[in-house]
Design a protein that fits this description.
about 425 residues, four-stranded antiparallel beta sheet, 10 helices, 6 strands, disordered N terminus
Length: about 425
């Protein structure tokens, strides 16, 4: 139901935004659609059931038993006593070797040294560890969404540049055709421009096919049939920071807390347990042994009491258990250090990449302005017969390459910014 509500909310948001999709919305939709998210609900339910099962240990425990035995020997009157009773005319058959008992016992835990409390804490932390592992898996989906999203945006920009490129080629082709009719251009010049334009059309076909493939992949991740128009993110919407809030670190924190809870459980195992009980049975012999030796009738019997138990078996493995927990803590600490180091290296690389692309974009703007001037000059020279069409095509290609490079640098910078956001979970 929660997933359905979120999906409907996403669809409503998309309708309001006139069928557009932002990167954050795509990541949220992919997260909600990813099958692993169902593990969170199942894990929470299993944790609740586990805690409830442990809590039942404080309820009165009732057990029933039935027993039949045949003994090699039983309690008997001393021979002198039997002789004396026989002289008095009292028949003492003695206790039978076949004995029977049907009964129940009721136990109530009073104090268990904290075993149940620590076991509940362990169960909850185990559930939190599983939830954190699921969060790590779901968080990795964001990286896949980032790659597909920016890949589609890059292809959108390339298709737009390709359309501009085709329009520019078409305009020059019209000029050449007019010059051909006026006798100032050759058919070969027109054919060269036509071939260049067809090459641009072919490139657009290839770019469109690749784009549709990426859009289909992103639609499958988001759980929608048709992917809306993607919105190009803005660089100023991302805050660069050194704080790290990755779910991998939360997972390590939960694992360390679980190790601490396991150590407290080890300490609780060293303490005694106190309980009260009541038991009763119907059978033979009863608690009155003398009566059972005189008569072989089944009787009702019962007792109540308190029981203190102290199991010292935990002492035998305590040293190895503590060593194992300390090794687990050390292992988690190493994992944390490795992750933080890798994150710091990745963060430094991404920040350097962002700065690099910003500088390159400033240079790209200057290059594009110069290339546009050169291209316009080449068009004028072609009209005046100073250069041939190949010279113009070279300048057209160089200008288009400069614009493409500018677009690639801009999207690469945006992707690096969002990769940095992913690295730091900001």
């Amino acid at each position: 139901m929660k997933r359905l509500i979120l999906s409907l909310a996403l669809l409503t948001a998309l309708a309001v935004r006139a069928q557009t999709l932002t990167l954050d919305e795509a990541q949220q939709a992919a997260r909600q659609n990813y099958p692993a998210i169902r593990q969170q609900t199942l894990t929470a339910q299993m944790t609740t059931l586990g805690v409830a099962d442990i809590q039942t240990g404080w309820l009165p425990q009732l057990s029933a038993m039935a027993q039949a035995t045949l003994q090699s020997d039983v309690t008997q009157w001393p021979d002198a006593m039997q002789t004396m009773l026989g002289q008095l005319g009292i028949d003492v058959p003695g206790m039978r070797k076949d004995q029977y008992r049907i009964g129940i016992e009721l136990n109530q835990r009073v104090w268990d040294g904290g075993r149940a409390r620590e076991q509940k804490r362990i169960t909850r932390l185990q559930g939190e560890v599983e939830q954190a592992e699921t969060d790590v898996t779901l968080y990795q989906v964001a990286d896949r969404v980032n790659r597909l999203y920016f890949g589609i945006l890059l292809l959108d920009e390339q298709l737009q540049l390709n359309a501009d490129w085709q329009a520019l080629l078409a305009a020059n082709l019209q000029r050449l055709e007019a010059m051909l009719r006026g006798g100032t251009a050759a058919q070969g010049d027109v054919s060269a421009m036509q071939a260049e334009r067809l090459g641009a059309v072919q490139q657009a076909t290839e770019l469109e096919a690749t784009k549709q493939g990426l859009r289909r992949m992103l639609a499958l991740l988001c759980g929608v049939d048709t992917l809306p128009q993607l919105v190009k993110p803005e660089a100023r919407s991302v805050v660069e920071t050194t704080d790290n809030h990755r779910p991998e670190l939360l997972l390590i924190d939960k694992q360390l807390q679980l190790a601490d809870a396991e150590q407290r459980a080890l300490n609780a195992r060293l303490l005694p347990r106190l309980s009260v009980f009541a038991q009763g049975f119907y059978g033979y012999p009863g608690y009155n042994m003398f009566e059972s030796m005189m008569r072989h009738d089944w009787t009702l019997n019962g007792m109540v009491g308190a029981r203190l138990t102290w199991d010292i078996g935990a002492l035998y493995t305590r040293r190895s258990d503590l060593a194992r927990l300390n090794l687990k803590r050390s292992l988690y600490g190493v994992r944390r250090d490795v992750f933080l180091l890798n994150s710091a290296v990745t963060q430094a690389s991404q920040q350097a990449g962002i700065s690099k692309y910003r500088r390159l974009m400033e240079q790209d703007d200057q290059i594009i302005a110069l290339r546009t001037q050169v291209r316009q000059t080449a068009e004028s020279k072609l009209r005046n017969g100073i250069i041939d069409v190949n010279g113009l095509l070279q300048e057209l290609t160089r200008e288009n390459s400069a614009k493409t490079q500018r677009m690639v640098h801009e999207l690469s910078m945006l992707q690096e910014i969002y990769n940095l956001k992913y690295t730091m979970n900001n």
